[in-house]
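Q: What does the assembled structure look like for these inputs?
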Amino acid sequence: MRALPYVQSAEPVLMLTGVVGNKTVTVLGVPLSDISYFDIDLSQGRLPQTGGEAVVESTVQAQTGSTLTIYVYQSSISPPTELDVRVVGVMSNLLKGFIGPMSLNLVVVPLDWLQQQLGVGDFYNMVFITLNDKSLIQPLAQELKARFPHAEVYTQQSALSTINRVFNMLNIFFLVIEVIAFVAGGLTTFTVMSITVRERLGEVALLKATGISGRDVALAFLLEVGLVGLLGGVAGGFAGYWGAIGIKYVLIRAGYNFDVPIPFIPSLFAMGIGVSLAVALLGALAPIYRVVSLRPLEILR
Amino acid sequence: MSEAIVLEDVHKVYKTPAGEVHALRGISLKIPRAAIAALMGPSGSGKTTLLNIISTLDRPTSGRVEVLGEDVTSLDEKRLEKFRLLKIGYLFQSYNLVPYLTAWQNVALPMLAAGMPRELARVKAKLLLELVGLGDAVDRYPWQLSGGMQQRAAIARALANSPELLILDEPTSNVDLDNAAVILGIIKLLSEVWKTTIVMATHDPDVAAMANTVYTIRGGQIIGGVAPRREVKVDVERAKEIYDKISAIDSSWR
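A:
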């Protein structure tokens, strides 16, 4: 593969599943010549320089200088192989915890050392290929699929489209939740306001009989609803923010890797308040209009 | 004395699922300005319907209604609202005060709706509450007032925009004797000092007795008008003092 003129690099990698304590980890054997790939994510210590050294993802929760005992599984029917590695570096979470419990918990070690410890010769189960010409990616992927029908072939584009699909699904999911929240909020406001104005019919009749115009009465009610919507929006914004932090804390305490950053974004907060206000006012319009358009005597009778 | 209210052959027919109900049958009457008129009669006789028509809250099915020189049957709803706000004060039997506003805020509400500056409205509201004997209760909420005090506060609110016509529906029906006496005194003062025309519906002969004219209504028709037979003694000087202050406030912004 490396001999092909358009292949810039083709590096073998051995990826296996292991267990550290009660945590599932991904053991990645990478040639020492390519281990610098992880330099950019290094947050503590250094990269492995020899066999028995490992750089681990922060989610593994191992300290630099400590020794990790990993039980590495080569197949589901054979017993695991016990490996001791010395942690020489810690990397930031590669996926930034975005997919939460599915974090890889990477433990990166030199490939030849891993092959030797497991007694698998020069066996590897993945190859990372870099091409000089990106227009050749698809033809090469097709050729590889044809030659190795049992192998999985991923291109950068297919990986990105998978990520895009996940993001699109997440967006649709959030959109559905938003729509449900708006409809539920609007209907709730409508119902509450219908009950409220019905309970306060006497007050409306009194104000209208006094000569206060329907417009002024409606404005007074809308002002009241607006204030409630505004306070609800502010309370909801803070509840959402602190609730998210609380959930994150609970999940982390429960052993899930859910290191999602939860920033306070003022523009989103303001938008939430605006939406809350709009939903409250829209939900209240119909019941208020219905009541204030009645003549005082129609209410009192 | 010019007429405050002129009714000519007024009929009111309500359509109900059971058929038509003839609430008023050809009522004609004239009430002079600054007079007190009482409407008496059994329940269902048409008293409240007549009050509602005079106060412009309801329209007659036929006939002519002139209130304070205005043919109100020809006014649209918007102009009626404004007419009621500035010219007429109305005291309901119940539903009289907005529960979450204090006494002075309740009284000031129609003034603010009429466009009076807030500070003037506050001063005038307190004067009116003083007039009805609630000078110490201006900051109390309705639930902190007795039934009689609430009724007096409602009278103060009915006077908010210094109306020329005051409509009272059973003004003493839900109050004790002491409060009833106070309310009668206020009515007398309004008529004598403020020259307000007062029309009230009542079951109470003692209340009716202070009126210049008592109209007895039965079956939607007036069957008689009688002269008063009772004098109510009131502190006219104090009322005049408050009236002068309120007149000064009114003339300062209108």
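The helical segments of chain A are 111-118, 137-147, 156-199, 201-210, 214-253, 266-292, 296-300.
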